[in-house]
Design a protein that fits this description.
Elements (H helix, E strand, L loop, with lengths): L2 H21 L6 H4 E8 L5 E3 L1 H14 L4 E10 L2 E11 L13 E13 L2 E9 L1 H7 L10
Length: 146
Amino acid sequence: MSDEARLEVNKKIAREYIQRVFNEHKPELAKDYVTADVVWHGGILGDISGAENVAQLLTSFIGALPDLQAVEEDIVAESDLVVIRLVVTATQRGDLLGVPASGRAVRWNAVDIYRVRDGRISEEWAADDIAAIMSQLGAFAPPWKA
């Protein structure tokens, strides 16, 4: 397979993962897209290892935001990495990061980087704008808005 074809396959895997797991609200399908030893890097939220643990994290996250929609703005692939810039919208219907269900709509920017190995995601760096989410949920007031 040519390098260009491999990059297109990797982008297809990342796009399908976002569509099926997030936009179709099926976090249990994460295990179909990740390696058994996957590592999810969540910045301030820490790292999570293993397919089962990642699926549990996503079940909790999507459970709190059951109408979540992630819209791709940009996608770039190089070597074994796929980078996707997204705009995410959702309504908080359950506890999220310690914040009780509020019914509030949220919208934030995210950049996800996926490492693809043998047709599956082996590593992810999830850079979601947590400050925007928490601000919209009323759990955090940026100093410039006080």
